[in-house]
Amino acid sequence: MNIKEKFKAIRNNYVINQVENIVLPNFECSNTTRKKFIFIGRVQKVGFRFEVSLLAKKLGLTGWVKNTPQGEVEAEIQGEKDKIDFLVQFMKSLKRIKIIEIKEQIIDVVCIEDEFIIIK
């Protein structure tokens, strides 16, 4: 295992522990919505997609997240609005990530989706 792989493994273990220790608030029940996000800033090579994926799964959200060639991260996240908002606010609070701008758009719900994935 080279140094880059070791660093990634350490970072991933840190992210896993961090997400496992999040105490989720009690969310109000609401209708399912789907939002498309573009996260702009220092969001690649910092475990952003991995953390979004873990937290989305913990919250019971579905959708996907991927890097873009422009150095941004794009995601479609589906579930209850308060849970999506919690995920976004949590990501904005992280020190190793620097979100400069978030573009957000409400899009159509995908009825047959049942998981959250990272697109490589």
From TrEMBL:
Gene3D superfamilies documented for this protein: 3.30.70.100
Family: Belongs to the acylphosphatase family.
Protein name per its UniProtKB record: acylphosphatase
InterPro entries on file: Acylphosphatase, Acylphosphatase-like_dom, Acylphosphatase-like_dom_sf, Acylphosphatase_CS
Short name of one Pfam family: Acylphosphatase
Organism name: Clostridium saudiense
Keywords of the record: Hydrolase
Residue ranges annotated for the Acylphosphatase-like domain, each copy included: 34-120
Listed EC numbers: 3.6.1.7
Positions of the catalytic residues: 49, 67
Keyword Hydrolase on entry: yes
Catalyzed chemical reaction(s): an acyl phosphate + H2O = a carboxylate + phosphate + H(+)
